[in-house]
Amino acid sequence: MCTNILAVAVGAPALFRKDTDDNEVLTYDFPFVTRAQWSARTAKQKLSLQTPIPYVVIHHSYTPPACYDGPTCKKAMRSMQNFHMDDRGWWDIGYNFAVGADGAAYEGRGWDVLGAHALHFNNVSIGICLVGDWSNSLPPTSQLKTAQALIAAGVELGYLKEDYKLVGHRQVRDTECPGDVLFNEIQTWDHYAPFPASADDLPEVEELKKI
Question: Tell me: domain 28-37+47-200, CATH 3.30.2420.10, correct?
């Protein structure tokens, strides 16, 4: 599973003030599955994320494998959340969103909640996980298109900067994520940024181990 610990810069945002696990209800022009619809557990705690956000980090799950229908993708979301919360001790699933090979986007932490997906980079980025192992094969076209549509929606809704930069997880962490084939693919997408080339290019931050 493509995982990481949370890192926030000095002067991190205050605790997220909403008292419920529900995020803002939004309507998208692509299939979108809310936390309630995939039976997400309640987050232990939340930190707010300052918007608009300047970076998008693309991941693959590696495991669970690609899911091609709603029930399997919902199960994959629960599996990732359980691993992150129970094995890693985090507050919630690490990703802000995931996208299944069924062509649907799945709500993780959401747009304005700090994720736990890219060490040194969580406080300036949204993490989107394409469920599956994309080391040797390309995700289905529907999965790629929905990921791109989700990013475009983030810009339209004001959660992402219009000049946001897109990077792969391996650019900000010593990892093979998001897989060689998917990484090659995202380099053709709008807003792809070759810098940072590695975590060595990133500023020092304070780390929170349990999020």
Answer: no
